[in-house]
Amino acid sequence: MHTIEPIARAVEAFASLPGIGPKTAQRLTFHLLRQPPETVQGLAEALVRMKESVHFCSVCGNVTDVEPCSICSSPSRDVSTICVVEDPLAVVTLEKTRVYKGLYHVLHGALDPLHGVGVEDLKIEELVRRVQAGGISEVILATNPNVEGDTTAGYLERRLLPLGVSITRLARGLPVGGDLEYTDEVTLARALEGRRAV
Ligand SMILES: [Zn+2]
């Protein structure tokens, strides 16, 4: 098949994204080819600017363009509670519930020994240090309801319990095997309110 190099490169770039297969990558590429140059320019610039200006909060690990992030520095948040999540997207979902008023800690993944993800690959020591620093009364473990999430929560329980904080987990009822970010807000709000001590 005759390939045009710049097109092939664009398709390849799209196909490297999560959830985008070769067919969709091709469709996106040819869609953009039909757009005016300024539309494509705007898309490219938005991506570059996002990458340049957004970083991870030094306190909680959430994505932010200010330091510390707007949640960590907000005077209206409950600073005695930390909700531990795997991914910045889970923060977005939890914020949408409007139920949770505490702080977050983003681990940036879950323990997955089979795929070589260990304690040192996640923001676990940072979490332990935050709790050790004092002032935290509750840590909510809101890892994803799957094997890796449960493994991670179990490990965190063992690490945090000796530090004298109350540790809770989201109530059951979340779709097993899924990610928090795909859970609807009502279900998540209910799981949060029904959280139980471990
Ligand atoms: Zn933060």
Task: Provide a compact summary of the structure.
This protein has 198 residues and is an alpha/beta fold. The protein is built from 7 helices and 7 strands, in the order αααβββαβαβαβαβ. Helices cover 41% and strands 14% of the residues.
Describe the structure in your own words.
The N and C termini lie far apart (59 Å). Helix 1 packs across helix 2 (22-33). The strands form two sheets. Strands 4-3-5-6-7 form a five-stranded mixed sheet. The protein is of the alpha/beta class and 198 residues long. The relative contact order is 0.11. The chain is elongated and about 65 Å long. It is built from seven helices and seven strands. Zinc ion (ZN) binds next to loops.
Tell me the layout of helices and strands.
Blueprint: H1 5-15, H2 22-33, H3 37-53, E1 55-56, E2 63-64, E3 78-85, H4 88-97, E4 102-106, H5 124-132, E5 138-141, H6 147-160, E6 166-169, H7 185-193, E7 196-197
Parallel strand pairs: 3-4, 3-5, 5-6
Antiparallel strand pairs: 1-2, 6-7
Helix pairs in contact: 1-2, 4-7
Bound molecules: zinc ion.
Keywords:
5-stranded mixed sheet, 41% helix, single chain, alpha/beta
- Given the C-alpha coordinates, what overall shape results? elongated
Instruction: Describe the main β-sheet briefly.
Output: 5 strands, mixed
Q: Percent helix among the residues?
A: 40-55%
Strand content: 5-15%
Radius of gyration, in Å, reads 20 Å
Category by helix and strand content: alpha/beta
